[in-house]
Structure formats: C-alpha cells, structure tokens
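Hi R.,

Here's the chain you asked about this morning:
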Amino acid sequence: MAAVIGIPASGEMGAGLAKVLTKHGARVLTNLEGRSAASRGRAADAGMEHAGWEAIARADMILSIVPPGIALDIARRLAAHFPPGAAPFYADLNAIHPALTREIGATVTAAGAQFADGAIIGPPPSDGKQPRIYVSGDAAAQLLPLCDLGLDIRAVDGGIGAASALKMCYGGITKGLTGLMAAMMLAAEREGAGAALHAELSGSQAALLKRAGNATPEMYSKAYRWVAEMESISEFIGSDRPEHMIWQGIAGLYQRIAADNDGPRREIAEMDRFLARSQDG
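And the predicted structure, written out as tokens:
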C-alpha cells in the first residue's frame, strides 16, 4: 500500500518535494482551501491531492513545510484532528528557531504523535538535484525511509532543536550575507561611490562580488519570505546579545525590498545598476 504523506501547503518547496514523493509512488495530501491559482497549479503538477485538515491529520506522516509565522498554528490545527491512538508521525521542516520547534513538538506529542525536528537546506528539487533535509531528535530515524522515496534525508546528532539550529545558522550566514551586500550596494549608490566600490571588490573580493551577482537578483522575489526567517534568527541569537540586531535589521531591509519589488522598484534598479558594472567590465 502506498505511503500517505501530508504536506499542508503547496508552496515551491512543499510541491517540489511532493513531486519527488509522488513520482516514487507515495500519495501526498495537501489543503488548497483559499489557495491561489499558482498554488493550485503547483499542487496539480506535483500530483498532490486536495484534502481537508481531518484527512491530512490521518496521513501516515506529516511534513510541515509552511511559512514560519504559521508553523505553530498549523501544528495546533492538525493536532486537533489526530485520530486517538493512531496519530501520524509529525516532522516540522520549517525555518524556525529551536524554542518554537520545541513548542510545536510538545503540541503534537501531547496529541499522541511522534515528532522530529527538521531543516531544509537548498532550493526545491530541480534537474535531479535535491535539497538536504536534516533531521534530529529521538524519532528522527523514522524519516530515513523517505530516502527510498527520492528525498535526501540526513540525521544529525542532538535532540529536538539541533536541526532547527543548523538551519538558523546556515540561513543567517547565506541570507544574512546577501542582505549585507545589498545594504552596502545601496549605501554606495546613494553616496555616489557605487563605481568605486565595484572596482575595489572586483580586484580584492572577486568571489564575493560574483556571489552577489548571482544571489542578489534571485533575492528580489523571495525577500518577503525571508523577513520572518531573519526575525527567527534574531530570536535564536537572543536579545541579550547585541548581535541579534544584525538579523533584525536585515529583516527590515528585506521587508523594504519586498515592498519595492511590488512597487516602484527604485532600490532594485540601484542594485541592478551596481551589479551591471560586472557585465560592462
């Protein structure tokens, strides 16, 4: 009998992983109530089946891949529908800080489920390439059979919170660096130093400039999704440590870039102008 897996939302990552799972024979349930045409299209392309929350709560396994801000709400909603004595295995794979992961774990285990902490690193599946899914906690080994369904599952040492911490640190470096580069490119352009900064980076930090050239344009359409992740990283660092303000500031920057991307695109034009000097040179 085919494994039944619940993936509550059909975003790019959720639908991407679902497509791999259905290709390997699994049934994947998702909830499309009130979802956009784009979400419905991704679900259809991935072979996902629309189901109510009660049906998803009766799946063999639930992989929660949702916007970080609603991860706890989704856990509570599904836990309320777990069948007595037959709750599904629940893995939270969202970009959230360890304290929230532990709260979600307590929520679903109180309702009878086993729980694993997880973190996805890398873009959605494409051209045969898979993101890495790191898992931790006493029950994490129960996710390893998903390797037979095409996913790249990797267990890491540590209890609940270890995989989430890995994601926080990795995202804090990669998306944080993209934010820092964007902030300095904008500052240089505002003060007329864009050409000079680009020339200096070309000579002394060529690898960093190349990275910015690839990562910055890709960030524009994703900035709105990264706001909550940067805020989570700030919480993870802790308000008692001054460095938490770095990621709080980057969250604000991404919020502004997201608004600019949906509106006048003035700052995006400035970043594009800065990066275009690499082609001109």
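Strands lie at 4-6, 27-30, 49-50, 61-64, 89-92, 115-121, 132-136, 152-155.

Let me know if you need anything else.
M.
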